[in-house]
Automatic annotation (TrEMBL), chains A, B:
The active site is at residue 52. One of its GO terms (biological process) is tRNA pseudouridine synthesis. This is tRNA pseudouridine synthase A. Gene3D superfamilies: Pseudouridine synthase I, catalytic domain, C-terminal subdomain, Pseudouridine synthase I, catalytic domain, N-terminal subdomain. It is an enzyme of class 5 (isomerase). It comes from Paenibacillus roseopurpureus. Its EC number is 5.4.99.12. Homodimer. Formation of pseudouridine at positions 38, 39 and 40 in the anticodon stem and loop of transfer RNAs. Keywords: Isomerase, tRNA processing.
Amino acid sequence: MRNLRFTISYDGTAYSGFQIQPKSDTIQYRLEQAVYLLTGETVKVISSGRTDAGVHAKAQVINFTTTSKIPVERWCLALNARLPKDIVAHTAEEVLPTFHSRKAAKRKTYCYTIRSARFPDVFHRNYEYHHPTHLNVEAMREALPCLLGEHDFTSFCTVRTDKEIKVRTLYEVRMETESDAYLATGKVDRIRLIITGNGFLYNMVRIIVGTLLQIGEGKRPPSDMLRVLEAQDRSLAGPTAEAMGLTLWKVDY
Amino acid sequence: MRNLRFTISYDGTAYSGFQIQPKSDTIQYRLEQAVYLLTGETVKVISSGRTDAGVHAKAQVINFTTTSKIPVERWCLALNARLPKDIVAHTAEEVLPTFHSRKAAKRKTYCYTIRSARFPDVFHRNYEYHHPTHLNVEAMREALPCLLGEHDFTSFCTVRTDKEIKVRTLYEVRMETESDAYLATGKVDRIRLIITGNGFLYNMVRIIVGTLLQIGEGKRPPSDMLRVLEAQDRSLAGPTAEAMGLTLWKVDY
């Protein structure tokens, strides 16, 4: 048995998330189907972590074991030929039998993109959340540093979760802004929140973004982020931001 | 009658081009339909120029005359609510009755994007042409300066055209390259050709790109661009590059 590890991208728009489930189209199903079409084998694809319905991935890491003798350098092309166009394998390598893409993941980086302009950008319409009214970028930035380091993130975790330990460490929480040279008025029209941690609770990035948006809208002061974090109470945080803006950016091992 | 001018973006993937035609879905049809739904009027939408099937626009300019009294600042939101999500109006203004978006256009800029990597980028898969094998970027760059200025571009014009005068002036022909920070190997993985002129012949940018790709592939020397240009013979140029990589970037008046 060989253990193969891949970096894959996907546009999550058309899928009910990563994890296989009955009667739904999922990334895992499509990957396992592609392997089956290629090798005739039924494999179980493991990922660094599930992504929810509508969430995208730029460099998700997966692995599975196979008895196939296809050389590793041919796998990406062979899988891509059997995958829909919204899922693409980029790199493949043979790894030790003990490698497990979820258990071995050390750090993950997510990016949440907000289109902050009166109208959506057609070319990114499925990959960013459109927020048509003004956001106070400085207030949003001010709210971020308190999230860095090791904390109990209960306030930013959907209640229906099976994970009992809610302590995670964030290594970087950064906001980038962009202006479109041709369409915009010189104002910020895209905001990216880039967040790296040793792991993330269920909906954690999206609830942080939902809270951050309320700060940007002036509905809460920047100091609310710390207050909410310390309270360890989901009901004090903002709503879960829409899935379409979220992309799993990379996974470090 | 008021004459209204708009900047619009569209993802051309799903359309048979800009210009209205029987039994096909077109950008012009969708725009006229949206105005009809809004005002009950049948208008004729004029653009700075047609774009072909599959070609996109970041900042196309259109105008039409209307008797509607809707204030100009409400038009974009009202039209967008009646347009599919792949067509978006960004700016609206009332202009002189004599303004004609095609006749008044002074300069147009197109961008042709090539994904130059082994595998496509899922997030841009409909907006760039995927070229999986190596391209010699330096050779491509060397071929460009000869196109600047006023020339007869017969060699870069599809034969079935009704325009008799094939002389156009190019003000800028520039190549930009990008590397993806997360997926790539440090190599160039995206090439953009940005080209500004006082007008373009039918398929002109796509035939220039088709010729340029052959230069990048090493099938022709960079000096071929000048040789082909001077010959005024379409049969000497490369093939017409795929529509999906082409975007009308902006129009100057």
